Amino acid sequence: MNIGIDKIGFFAPHLYVETKDLAVKRGVEPEKFTIGIGQEKMAVAPTSQDAVTLAANAALSILTEEDKQAIDYVIFATESGVDHSKAASTYIHNLLGLPSYTRAVEMKQACYSATAGLQAARGHIALNPDSKVLVLASDISRYGLNTAGEITQGAGAVAFVVAKEPKILSIEPTSVYKTEEAMDFWRPLYSETAFVQGKFSVDQYINFFLDLLERYNEKTNRSLKDFDALLFHLPYTKMGLKALRKSVEAAELEDQERLLNGFDISKYYNAIVGNIYTGSLYLSLVSLLENSQTLEAGDRIGLFSYGSGSVGEFFTGVLVPGYEQYLNTDHHTAMLKNRTALTVEEYEQIFEEKLPVGEKDYTVDTTKDPAPFVFTGVTEHMRQYKRQA
Prior knowledge:
Binding site for (3S)-3-hydroxy-3-methylglutaryl-CoA: 143, 242, 275
Largest sheet: 10 strands, mixed
Keywords: Transferase
Strand content: 25-35%
Domain Hydroxymethylglutaryl-coenzyme A synthase N-terminal: 2-163
Mean pLDDT: 96
Pfam families: HMG_CoA_synt_C, HMG_CoA_synt_N
Radius of gyration: 20 Å
CATH architecture of the largest domain: 3-Layer(aba) Sandwich
InterPro entries: HMG_CoA_synt_C_dom, HMG_CoA_synth_N, HMG_CoA_synthase_prok, Thiolase-like
Low-confidence stretches: none
């Protein structure tokens, strides 16, 4: 029985800032951000959007009523959780109107946890072949104004359905994974922004990829020739490119060109949305599927998932015949086209709009947010959400 991704979609807030404008405001050459980091636009989440609403909006765009009735497991992967105890997946379950007899959990391991969710979903489908699993990867990346990490911010969510005999990508059974305790990136409970050791983080990421790729090749007797594309977790697009270049240094020119060209296509959405943590790898997958002109059914795609701290995994998927018919390209294109560009001053104002802490009641202005699902505030310390479209 084949198990894999049956549907996939993403959502980004309706606001963004041009990285070249941010560079000018910060007194650096725009090319440092657009080429050196590889980011063109950075999605900005208003206070009416959080990890829950981003995920709900992503899922809404791909689910039919038939899908909803078949889903009996919701896995929410995030490092932007809204509660220390209550899983964000329970809000999603309610907002989407999923069946009562559903398992709903939240997973955390930095940017890796959506892959943990995918693998858990595969196991569930193997035991329950007629069910479907909804996996959500949703985050808002914040490093602070005028910080080294500011350019690697972003906001968004990816939602995908895991099922038997998938219509898009069949996940192959062999994967390799690794854990190594490391303080390359972390966010203590008392901090609203993350801490990162930049060079160490890049080194850890690249070393994990090279190690896992070699281990995978040893287990499967495959090489770079067997991959039609390699995808990466992309906190910023240049990071994945560095890892890919390291892996193809000794490869034949044909393999280098194929994999580098594929990477250029896969990074497109990430470059104009920004860092969405748990969803970054899967946003890259959507970008490749929706923008490539050369992919064919049967092509093998390698995927490198990484979460600081550190956990990494390399696994593969094979494209299913007719996968193009089940993509949501037109919806995504329209969503990105209809976004509103902010000035740097407007972006800074939104960034500094902090929600009240410890207050049992407050209201959030949602009148300017066109998204279907919005966060409306808190009543008696309970978060409130609504569907407005």
